[in-house]
Every structure is written in structure tokens, then in C-alpha cells.
# Entry
Amino acid sequence: MERLPALLSLSELQQLQQLVLAVHAAAPLLDYVQDLIAATRSGQWFLQGLSPRAGIAVVRAAKAQALLSGRDYVAPDDVQAILPQTIAHRLIPVGDSGRGAVEQVRAMLATVPRERRQGRPRRGPGAATRHRWSVGARFQLGARHAFPCATARRSRSATSTSCPPHLASCWA
# Structure
């Protein structure tokens, strides 16, 4: 078999990855993703739910979808577009649903409101960390870049010389 030519060079791929990280995800959108993750854990839809780390992966995939759509911000439509294909392989629908995992995710999506009503309290185990996700590294939900760079994550320091200054605001 002949060798296939590369479509992107390593530097082009890294550039695209940086562009994805630069896509803005607003706090209400992150709340929406947290509500979706909480819905997977409710027991109504799936036997076991998703972890906060899965929520981070969903946000990253939604950022990539937004970039492919030509936007520098994530919309709820981006989350809804990628969610079934992104998480269904990790979920087992409850026995009486009569649906496959992808269909069950779509049904769950239809029931989770996109926006929270004013003053609606946070529920579940994440209630105390409303303004933070805590999965190894902490970052503020309202920060422009929701994911600190790997160097800063390893060193637990926002002032790492190899961490770009615009990512330093992610660290609390």
C-alpha cells in the first residue's frame, strides 16, 4: 500500500488546535453543559452518567464545531450538534427506554433547557463549585480560555514562562 500524503503539517495542526482553544465559551453555555452532564447522572436517562472531565471534552468539541462554522464563540446549537456523537459511546440507556444510546441522548437534549431561569439554584454535587469546574486544574467559567495550557497544569503555576499570558487568567 502506498503512503498517503499528509493533509496538514504539524505546525498547521497545532495552529488549528490553538484556534479551537481561542473560541469563546460563555458562562451560560458552560452552565448548560453542566446541566447536560448532570442530566446524564440523574438515573432517568442512563445507568451511569458522565464525569466533569467528559464535560470538558464536550466543550472542546463544541469549540471545534463553532470554529468549523466560522464563529469565534460557542452557541448551544454547537453543543447539540456534537453531543450525541461525542458521548453516546460512553452511555448505556436505562432498560425501559427502548432506544439506543444516540437516540437517548437526543431525547435527553430535548428536555434540558438551554437557559436557566433567573435565581434557579444549582443542584447536585457541583453546587458548592458553581463558578469553577475542578478536574485537576481549576479555571474560571467566565474566562475567555477555559483550558489552561499543559505546562501550567503540570507545574500548577499560571506564571510558567511557556504558558501564554492570555491563559494566566484561567488560574485562580
